[in-house]
Amino acid sequence: MKFLVSALTIFLLIGCTTGRLEYVTPEGETKYGCETEYTWQPSVDKYAVEYILSYCAKQAAQLGNTVVNTNLLNLNLSIPAPPAGQNWSFDLAKSMYKKGQLTDKQYGYLIAYMDLGHDKG
Q1: CA distance 77 to 113
Q2: Which of 24, 89, 91, 107 suits a disulfide with 97, CB 3.0-4.6 Å?
Q3: CA angle (106 as vertex; 112, 31 as ends), nearest 5
Q4: Rounded to whole angstroms, how far apart are CA atoms 8 and 13?
Q5: What integer is the mean pLDDT of 43-59?
Q6: How far from 12 is each of 5, 6, 34, 36, 44, CA to CA, in Å?
């Protein structure tokens, strides 16, 4: 039983992509925020985490904070337009991804975009 629990824990840790935003306030205090985690497919999850952190970094910078990882501020967070007459949904994105119509990055960004509620508009 102990082995099974250890194996399951290792499996879950391997399939987990995490991130958090580090920034410095105007008063010089280092803070962390926007901790995020995706546990589906590492090749896609890394982009979902990247999208969330970049979005948060841009928000933090607008509030006068200094973002430690400045690369996050330069990412283009645009997502592809959905097929004509449709709106993005998790099912549509998954279907298009499985058909090879979306790259790992596009799919990861779409998942994060919808998780943040940006598709609600």
Answers
A1: 9
A2: 107
A3: 40
A4: 9
A5: 96
A6: 11, 10, 21, 15, 16
- Residues in Cβ contact with 108 at an 8 Å cutoff, skipping those fewer than 6 apart: 38, 44, 45, 46, 47, 48, 49, 50, 51
C-alpha span between 89 and 10 (Å, rounded): 31
- Torsion angle, CA of 73/75/81/87, rounded to 10 degrees? -50
**Enclosing H/E stretch for 35:** strand 30-38
Per-residue confidence (pLDDT) for residue 16, from 0 to 100 = 82
Can you give the pTM of this predicted structure?
Answer: 0.84
The gap from C-alpha 111 to its chain's centroid, in whole angstroms, comes to 7
Q: Which residues contact 28 (CB under 8 A, 6 or more apart)?
A: none
What is the average per-residue pLDDT within 15-39? 92
Could you tell me if 72 and 53 are in contact, meaning their C-beta atoms sit under 8 angstroms apart? yes
DSSP H stretches of helix in 1-121: 2-14, 42-62, 90-98, 104-115
